[in-house]
Amino acid sequence: MIPVERCLGFILTLLICFSSPTHAKQEYMVGAGDVLTVTVYGYDDMKATVRVNDNGEIQVPLLGPVRVADMPISEIALLIQQKYADGYLTNPQVNVFINEFRSKKAVILGQVAKPGVYELSGQTTFLELISKAGGLTEKAGDTATITHKGSEKQNDSSETINIKELTEGGNLKENFEIQDDDNIVINTAGLCYVSGEVKKPDAYKIDKNTTVIKAITLAGGFTGKAKQESVTIVRIVDGAKVTIPDVQMDGAVYPDDIIIINESFF
After folding, report:
1. What is the DSSP string of 153-213?
2. pLDDT of residue 101
3. Does the pTM of the predicted model rise above 0.70?
4. What are the Cα distances from residue 110, in Å, to 58, 146, 184, 205?
5. Is the pLDDT reported for residue 160 higher than 70?
6. Chain-centre distance of CA 75, in angstroms?
7. Cα angle for residues 124, 127, 130 (degrees, 5° grid)
8. Are 219 and 198 in contact (CB under 8 A)?
9. C-beta separation of 256 from 219 below 8 A
10. CB neighbour list of residue 55: distance below 8 Å, 6 or more residues apart
């Protein structure tokens, strides 16, 4: 039988390979630090591999400095082609490629294997960034928070990504395109603790749909000594511990709840 973790990993891989961001797509905008290769068809000696400097310029053979910052590759090629055609070459055919992406970066933190700063190699989706960061940890929750850096006239804005809907439900609307300077936090899952007369006492991930009986099922079910009609929850309410006896099996479970299955003495 294939482990659940491998199945989920396979699903995540498929989503990364075949999905694209559903939010507005745009060409990658070149910035300082990117390395470009410029070629002119029929003029091999004019091939140049150049880095975009801090002023947003590259050095192009015959032309000297050409400003390319905040332009897509297609426009850069057309611009250089027009400049060459203006008294330098007859009917030039120019191609521009990106060798290294260095100008756009995003930060991913929280429950991923390798949190940190990552360069964005062209259009990068949320799932692709998770893959770069080594995947989700076992403590990852069902949501992520993505914060977009504002401009001088706009404040930062944030959105919530429903990871569960994306990876399990296939809702590609949640596969946001990551932008330069985005900050992504993979939230930690809520946990409850199941103890007493269950087969596998431990901490378990929960969501908003988790009930008492579901939590007990996650813990392997009742032991033969369990008093099934006597289940107690210890819950934090307004900073204080509250004991709730004889809870209903369909009652909701909240993060940090301690579910205690009492022993039957008969």
Report:
1. SS--EEEEEEHHHHHTT--GGG-PEE-TT-EEEEEEPEEEEEEESBSS-EEEEE-TT-BHH
2. 82
3. no
4. 37, 12, 8, 16
5. yes
6. 30
7. 95
8. yes
9. no
10. 32, 65, 67, 69
**Which of 2-11, 40-49, 113-122 has maximum average pLDDT?**
40-49
What percentage of the chain reaches a pLDDT higher than 90?
A: 63
What letter would DSSP give residue 61? T
Where do the domains of the chain lie, and which CATH numbers do they carry?
A: 4-23+104-188 (3.10.560.10), 35-100 (3.30.1950.10), 190-263 (3.10.560.10)
Q: Identify whether the C-beta of residue 231 lies closer than 8 Å to the C-beta of residue 262.
A: yes
Question: Which amino acid appears at position 143 of this protein?
Answer: T
Residues facing residue 118 across a β-bridge: 106
Q: What gap in Å lies between CA 206 and CA 50, rounded to an integer?
A: 51
User: Which residue reads 């290294």 in tokens?
Assistant: 100
Distance from C-alpha of 263 to C-alpha of 196, rounded to nearest angstrom: 7
